[in-house]
Amino acid sequence: MSSKDKIVIAFDLYGTLLSTESIAKDLATHFGQEQANKIATLWRRYQLEYTWRMNSMTLYKPFSEITSAALKHALAESSVSLSDENISKLMKAYDNLGTFPDVQPGLEAIASDPSIDAYVFSNGSDDMVSASVNQSPSLSAHASVFKSLVTVQEIEVFKPDPTVYHHLCKKAGKSFSNEDMASVWLVSGNPFDIVGARAAGIQAAWVDRGSGHSGNGGWTDQLGTLASGGPTIIVSGVEEAVTGIKKWMAENAGGSGGGNNKEPATMGPG
Q1: Can you tell me the distance from the alpha carbon of 204 to that of 152, in angstroms, rounded to the nearest whole number?
Q2: Is the pLDDT reported for residue 218 higher than 90?
Q3: Which stretches of sequence are listed as region Disordered (predicted)?
Q4: Which of 48, 103, 169, 181 is such that its CA lies 20 to 30 A from the CA of 8?
Q5: pLDDT at 149 over 70
Q6: Beta bridge partner(s), residue 150
């Protein structure tokens, strides 16, 4: 089977494959758990906000620099500070993040399925993403599953700019035809990423680990109603994403992408 005929599944890295919960634990050694949790939330907020603001200003800096600046913003807003040495240690923690429990069986399923090409697809720089994948205690064992690590460094623009998703398609050997785009999937736990992927014309599986997978999915982002629709499918984890994507592709073979106005399918066990 040629690459052109395969299903492409591109996994967002931070917050989808790798859990950033340990970052709050590292912060807690300095400030206590309650304040650390608040700082970690602010850190993530500004990490994303900075990328969107830079897109709007047509500016680019490596994700590692944005991440460091966002941390300093979160610390200042919380009226606390850390030494440069401790900030460097927190940044280094990104190289040793662990995976969510559902990641390993999902990647193992891909490793034994020749119909899928898997990619890591991240806002991170090449060095940052490579270090995170290859040094993670739990993800590094599955690094060979990924055909490539696709980052935004080459194009110098961040998600959810459509250029980023088209860059993924190009790297995966897919054209921008409806048929090709229907076989390119993003798996992400970030709603903004999902809406961006759908607006760019590719399929998207939203990983909803927060709602306990109640059946309603927990999708609340309303931008899709204005832009592109929400996720193609809603899943509870990476393992379910893989089975759900294969099921969707089997049921929609030959379609033009499923249509952006359709309600997302909430996948279940089996």
Answers
A1: 18
A2: no
A3: 250-270
A4: 48
A5: yes
A6: 121
Tell me the HSE value of 8 on the side-chain side, using a 13 A CA sphere: 33
Which CATH number is 21-96's, of 3.40.50.1970, 3.30.2350.10, 1.10.150.240, 3.40.1130.10? 1.10.150.240
- Read off the pLDDT of residues 195-204 as tens digits, 9 standing for 90 and up: 999 999 999 9
Tokens of 168: 């993924």
Q: Which of 246, 237, 242 minimizes the C-alpha distance to 102?
A: 237
pLDDT in tens, 19-75: 988 899 999 999 999 999 999 999 999 999 999 999 999 999 999 999 999 999 999
| Domain 3-18+97-266 bears CATH identifier 3.40.50.1000 | yes
How does the average pLDDT of the chain come out, rounded? 90
184: nearest Cα among 195, 13, 81, 197: 197
Quick one: pLDDT at residue 254? 57
Which among 61, 171, 50, 59 has a CA at the least distance from the CA of 125?
61
pLDDT for 263 equals 61
3-state secondary structure the chain: CCHHHCEEEEECCECCCECCHHHHHHHHHHHCHHHHHHHHHHHHHHHHHHHHHHHHCCCCCCHHHHHHHHHHHHHHHCCCCCCHHHHHHHHHHHHHCCECCCHHHHHHHHHCCCCEEEEEEECCCHHHHHHHHHHCCCCHHHHHHEEEEEECCCCCCCCCCHHHHHHHHHHCCCCCCHHHHCCEEEEECCHHHHHHHHHHCCEEEEECCCCCCCCCCCCCCCHHHHCCCCCCEEECCHHHHHHHHHHHHHHCCCCCCCCCCCCCEECCCC
